[in-house]
Amino acid sequence: TISLKGLREVTNVNLSRNTFEGSLDISLFPNRLKIIDISHNHLSGSLDFSRLPPPIEKIDFSYNRLNGSLNLSMIGDAFVIKTLRLNNNEFSGDALISVDVWKAENMDFRGNKLDNVFIRVEEFHCRDEDG
Questions:
Q1: 5, CA 20 to 30 Å: which among 28, 31, 32, 88?
Q2: Which DSSP state fits 55?
Q3: 128, part of any domain
Q4: Using CA atoms in the order 8, 10, 11, 16, what is the torsion angle rounded to 10 degrees?
Q5: For this UniProt entry, which residues form the secretion signal (predicted)?
């Protein structure tokens, strides 16, 4: 298990392109974490995304062996996630995602075993071109 618990002040973690194996416990992420890249490893197991620290903006867990369902329905509420890369893992079933379309810039779920991706848009404003 990768643990970042003792790194309370850390805001940016890049552990990509290593040969890390085992599971990933999101509840052990530092509370101030904004950017995490653990892509291109051999991590496996399911993730509890409800345990993400709210200031997180960029997540890259791509190219691992993470599995289970994707329930990201809480992301639109208190989070400012701009980048969410979960591509090339082993997630399966239906993905439930909430996003604020003004914050989300890059979401990638390709290369998984997902049946459907359901996206709930949190906020949508139409602009009147005439003023």
A1: 88
A2: T
A3: no
A4: -120
A5: none
